[in-house]
Write a structure and sequence with these properties.
The complex is a heterodimer.
Chain A (H helix, E strand, L loop, with lengths): L1 H31 L6 H19 L2 H22 L9 H23 L15 E5 L2 E4 H23 L1 H11 L1 H6 L4 H23 L9 H16 L4 H29 L2 H26 L10
Antiparallel strand pairs in A: 1-2
Chain B lengths: L1 H26 L4 H26 L7 H20 L16 H23 L4 H20 L10 E2 L14 H24 L1 H11 L1 H6 L4 H27 L1 E2 L6 H14 L6 H19 L4 H14 L3 H7 L7
Antiparallel strand pairs in B: 1-2
């Protein structure tokens, strides 16, 4: 039971990271109708900048404070120089151009930082573990990740439903020509939304830094998971991103943790381990296929 | 008329070049080119099959590498069982491994086509962005399945100790293998050309241009799209089977989405919806990769921006530039 609770927390933490990634991407998908495969690169940029600054200065917070604007600025620059020209083009063009950008960003990181992965230490004031329940000891850093994610989700909710900017973004999502005609500078709005999205991706990268190795290409594995989240949740919907991220995080983590045990009840152990290993890594894709067959536009479609 | 002449000339020149290339390579004592171009022919086959989806049916599949991988694994798994003298399975009937190309290549095509049919029938329920994402997800699903398949090497893949056997041909001989690939590529090109010019081709193009109108005419475009998806998957499976033979190595890497992306790049580089363009695209992409890799290990830092520039400014692709034609959906 304790193990189950611990795995739920782990799933929640993966889900939160995925939410940070998908919140930005789903806005870009939904509002600008543009497919950005290079979103994972900003996750990588965030992690690299934070790791480098933290290693030089010894301060994780300073690293984070510089990593977020770096990711946002890189994103806005990319939007301004390249993506802006692709809004009216076909999806195929967007896929190919951003595929080229992934190659560029990954290789550039290898040139700047080398092929060896960097390691980012958990800051001392967040290291250690606390006892949540009797016998349930959980690392503080992972709890902090969950906390930050919840805070960002609340802040985004507030921004979207309670501020003027959020209203304009929502209006842009449902009818961009109309909001342009009403005198909102839609180009600037797009660039800002894009920067917000890449900043959130950078934040996800910063927070994943102490848990995973910081290396070139780290963005791609999470990028694919992010797509799964967005498609499950429904493109362009923040609510869908929350639901999809938690669902994917929990299914993936719990599947990896408990499928082997479940399978061992039925099969002999060698077969069970092999079957559970392949099934648990495919679980989220099966979930996604099932959701799409059931609801082809995702759980919470933005434009219904 | 003039464009048509340029097109015929370009295709003829390309065919003559590919036919004579091994002769030139042997005369120049650079046998390496034969194996490099075998690889190009195989990738070209996969790219042409993808062009049927991207350029004609308007279905943007970001999971085409899955079928390449399946084809390769069919060859690899049959080879493994033949060399281990162990049947693949004994229930409901006994199936032995094999190294015979006359058996394993058609099987690679059939199994890929079967997977394309199952996956395609699910994916085609969705459209647009969702279609891109779900094809990607299925490819990743298969990728992780093979990564965790410990019996066949898992992450490390399977090494084949020789190429498949074929009565009357020695596929281990690079020259004979090259002509074998060329023969299959030309056969597939011919078939694809006939296909897109047929009534069927009209249907799939109609489906991508205006599905609602097609529907109003009483035509169910789903069937046609699925058939097209299956044919493309079969072509990719053949390419996979050949690729397993060419490199004598099979790994889950063949199903990775970066390969799907590279195939898309080849199609676009060559010319979307031109059938012959992707052959040129595959050649240019792989030769460029090869050349850049000679000068710097960081070749991708040049390749990336090059792709962006191609997308932004050279929409018609190289084949379009040569023939002066727009692509078929234009």
């Amino acid at each position: 039971m304790l193990l189950f609770f611990e795995q739920i927390l782990n799933g929640l933490q993966l889900g939160i990271t995925l939410f940070l990634m998908s919140a930005g991407l789903t806005l870009v998908f939904g509002i600008m109708q543009v497919i950005n495969l290079a979103h994972g690169s900003f996750y990588m940029i965030g992690a690299y900048v934070c790791a480098t600054v933290a290693a030089r200065s010894g301060s994780f917070l300073l690293g984070m404070a510089l990593a977020l604007p770096a990711a946002a600025l890189c994103g806005m620059l990319m939007e301004f120089v390249i993506l802006r020209r692709l809004y009216k083009r076909e999806h195929l063009d967007q896929v190919l151009a951003t595929f080229g950008l992934i190659m560029f960003f990954n290789e550039l990181t290898r040139i700047l930082w080398g092929r060896q992965p960097l390691y980012l230490n958990v800051p001392s004031w967040l290291s250690g573990s606390i006892e949540l329940l009797p016998d349930l000891v959980y690392p503080v850093y992972r709890l902090a990740v969950i906390g930050v994610g919840l805070f960002v989700a609340l802040a985004l909710w507030f921004m979207f439903s309670r501020t003027r900017l959020g209203m304009q973004i929502r209006a842009g999502a449902s009818n961009r020509d109309m909001i342009g005609a009403l005198g909102v500078n839609i180009k600037l709005l797009y660039t800002m939304v894009f920067g917000l999205g890449t900043m959130l991706a950078g934040l996800a990268g910063v927070m994943a830094g102490p848990i995973l190795a910081v290396e070139a290409g780290m963005g791609e594995s999470i990028l694919i998971l992010t797509f799964v989240v967005i498609v499950i949740g429904g493109i362009g919907s923040i609510r869908g991103a929350v639901a999809g991220a938690l669902l994917v995080g929990l299914v993936d983590t719990l599947g990896r943790a408990f499928l082997p045990t479940l399978f061992r009840l039925v099969f002999e152990s060698a077969t069970a381990d092999a079957a559970a290993a392949s099934l648990s890594s495919m679980a989220i894709y099966i979930l996604m296929a099932a959701v799409l067959v059931w609801k082809p536009t995702g759980l919470f479609p933005a434009h219904s | 008329m003039k464009a048509n002449f340029r097109k015929t000339a370009a295709i003829t020149l390309g065919a003559v070049f590919l036919l004579l290339l091994p002769v030139a390579a042997i005369l120049a004592q650079e046998p390496y080119f034969i194996s490099l171009f075998s690889r190009i022919l195989i990738y070209a086959l996969a790219a042409v099959s993808l062009d049927l989806l991207l350029g004609y049916a308007g279905m943007i599949s970001l999971g085409h590498a899955a079928y390449v991988g399946i084809g390769a694994y069919v060859v690899g798994i049959f080879f493994y069982h033949a060399s281990e003298m162990e049947p693949l399975f004994s229930f409901p009937f006994l199936l032995q491994g094999s190294e015979n190309a006359m058996l394993v290549l058609p099987l690679a095509v059939l199994v890929s086509a079967f997977f394309a049919m199952v996956i395609g029938s699910l994916c085609l329920r969705t459209k647009g962005m969702h279609f891109i994402m779900i094809t990607l997800a299925f490819a990743q699903m298969l990728y992780y399945f093979f990564v965790s398949l410990g019996k066949y090497g898992g992450d490390d893949g399977l090494s084949l100790y020789s190429r498949s056997t074929m009565p009357g041909l020695d596929l281990d001989n690079d020259l004979q293998f090259y002509y074998f690939c060329l023969f299959l590529l030309m056969g597939f090109l011919f078939m694809a050309k006939r296909l897109v010019e047929s009534r069927f081709g009209l249907m799939i193009r109609g489906g991508s241009n205006n599905e609602r109108r097609l529907c109003a005419l009483g035509i169910n475009s789903y069937k046609y799209k699925l058939a097209c998806f299956v044919i493309a998957g079969a072509g990719a499976g053949l390419a996979g089977g050949l690729l397993a033979n060419q490199t004598e190595y099979v790994s889950p890497g063949l199903m990775h989405w970066t390969l799907s992306g590279e195939l898309m790049v080849m199609v676009l580089l060559g010319g979307l919806g031109t059938i012959f363009g992707p052959v040129l695209g595959a050649a240019v992409f792989l030769l460029l990769e090869e050349t850049l890799a000679m000068y710097t290990e960081h070749w991708m830092v040049y390749m990336g921006p090059f792709l962006v520039i191609v997308v932004l400014f050279a929409k018609r692709g190289l084949f379009g530039l040569i023939t002066g034609e727009k692509h078929n959906n234009g």
